[in-house]
Amino acid sequence: MTEQPKNNRISSGIAATITTAAVAVAGVVGYFTINNPSDTSNPNPPIVTQQPTNPVETPKATNEKTATVYWIQESQDGNNFELVPQSIQVQADVNNPSEFLEASFQRLLAGPTEGSGSSTIPEGTKLLDIKAQGDEVRVNLSSDFQFGGGSASMIGRVGQVVYTATALNPNAKVYLELDGEQIEVLGGEGLDLQQPLTRDNYQKNFEL
Predict the structure, then answer these.
(1) CA distance 93 to 44
(2) Which residues, at least 6 apart from 186, have a Cβ–Cβ distance to it below 8 Å?
(3) For the region Disordered, what residue ranges are annotated (predicted)?
(4) Buried b vs exposed e over 109-127: b needs ≥16 C-beta within 10 Å?
(5) pTM, rounded to two decimals
(6) Contact (Cβ atoms closer than 8 angstroms) between residue 103 and residue 82
């Protein structure tokens, strides 16, 4: 009878130890559960990609188009001269005919290539501006355009300008300016120009 209380004390101590250990294990498990959450219901979380801060610009609409420049060439009968076209390819805004004509005139003022004819436009003439709007084309050249050559040369260079400027629209009206001023008389020979110039009045008023 004297040993029973001792066994009870031992059993009570073991139970207390087990309870304390269980509480400690539960605390450790709870700590790791809080600090390392795991959602087994969605094993593949969505990937978030950062959107670019600078949107990509849409490239400007361009189109390769055939433009035309005009040179002077001796006629087949050898009695006079005539205007002859040369096709060139240019890249420009499809909605901006001024860009096509600018490219044409830059090529015209650079001079003819081998076998394409000749030019009566004085070397050094520069294109200052060109605008095509509706059925009108305004061509602004440097004053070099009016120097050198006789009346035949003057007629030839006017024809080159008129026909090149109206290559996109043969019925267009051309206004010729030198250094920003519209002219009525060209050069020392005094070639009268009836502005606006057209292919029709050029053929009526001038002969190469």
Answers:
(1) 49
(2) 145, 146, 154, 158, 193
(3) 36-60
(4) beebeeeebebbbbeebeb
(5) 0.69
(6) no
